[in-house]
Amino acid sequence: MKNIAIIFPGQGAQIAGMARDFYDNYPCSKAVFDIASQACGLDLAELCFTENDRLDKTEYTQVALLTAELAMMAAVRETGVAPAVTAGQSLGEYAALVTAGYLDLTDAVRLVRERGILMQNAVPVGKGAMVAVVGLTADAVEEFCRRADGVVEVSNYNSQKQTVVSGEREAVLQVKQMAEDAHARLAVELNVSIPSHSPLMRPAAEALQKTLAGVTLHTGSIPYVANVSAEYVTDAAAIKELLVHQMYSAVRWEQSIRAMQATGVELFLEVGPGETLTKMNKKIDRTLTARNIASVEDLLALQV
Question: Is 235 helix (H, G, I), strand (E, B) or coil?
């Protein structure tokens, strides 16, 4: 079997109906939904499988997406796929931690449910924003952030020429204008309700830190790569601090992928709705072997 990294997408990947075919065909996947629903007090099957106005609201999105990803992963495990390392983009890091054995399913669901609520309430609606910039270097975008009036920082290093900035709306829009003036291929405001991974999330992070203090972390079975440092982590004691910092720090996704490549990962297997990371990883390195599992059909076709 190839040296495999299992990776999980973050908020924005969610779609109505995600993981429904896994729920219907794999008892282990249905069990994830049942356990998660009991843990957070929500009907997660109803939330994930039906068209509704809650799925794109952060306080519901995060716990729904986490549950869908872990339900899919339960079925992947039944096929015998054994990853050597795992990672997740932003919210996906919690799915990675459960998969690697550091965090229990019920604790992860409760944490992510609270995380979503805290992040939704951290900044008044309309006060924050995020903009994706394509076609300019990260150095150029960082310079725009320094020149803007207000709080704005790079929140996602997705590939060599794809970054996201996050912060106060007016400052973010200034960066957008500077990127357009510099002939960026694309500078587009994202349809999000919160400025994730910006300093504006510090109050939410401090609140989550108090909850994390009461959560037991375990010795994992495999390492995971942390968003904040883009480094392999095996020390359970360090994870809580990394999760706190992750809420207001940049996601170093490109650096994370390169760290896994450097240790001999041969296949990046994205588990979750869509193929966001699979496409993104190809922009990082065209030679990289990447597959996505978003449906039972994808899983049945998988050859490793």
Answer: coil
Could you tell me the residue range of the domain that residue 278 belongs to? Answer: 4-122+199-301
Q: How many domains does the chain have?
A: 2
Task: Kindly tell me the number of DSSP H helices and DSSP E strands found in the chain.
Answer: 13, 11
Which helix H or strand E contains 157, and what residues bound it?
strand 152-159
The CATH number that applies at residue 141 is 3.30.70.250
Biggest alpha carbon–alpha carbon distance for the chain:
54
Residue 194 belongs to some domain of the structure: no
User: In this predicted structure, what is the pLDDT of residue 43?
Assistant: 97
Q: Which residues are catalytic?
A: 90, 197
Q: At what angle do helices 236-246 and 92-100 cross, to 10 degrees?
A: 170
pTM, 2 dp:
0.96
160/243 same-domain check: no
* Structure tokens, 131: 């903009």
The answer on 156 and 39 residing in a single domain is no
Compute the distance between CA of residue 83 and CA of residue 38 in angstroms, rounded to an integer.
28
Query: What distance lies between CA 155 and its chain's CA centroid?
Result: 12
Whether 112 and 237 map to the same domain: the answer is yes
Is 152 part of any domain? Answer: yes
pLDDT (tens digit, 9 = 90+) per residue, 193-207? 799 999 999 999 999
Q: How far is CA 53 from the centre of its chain?
A: 21
* Residue indicated by tokens 């339900």: 71
Report how far residue 63's alpha carbon sits from residue 211's, in angstroms, rounded to the nearest whole number: 16
Q: Is residue 304 predicted with pLDDT exceeding 80?
A: no
Question: 234-266 pLDDT, tens per residue?
Answer: 998 899 999 999 999 999 999 999 999 999 999
Same domain as 205, residue 64: yes
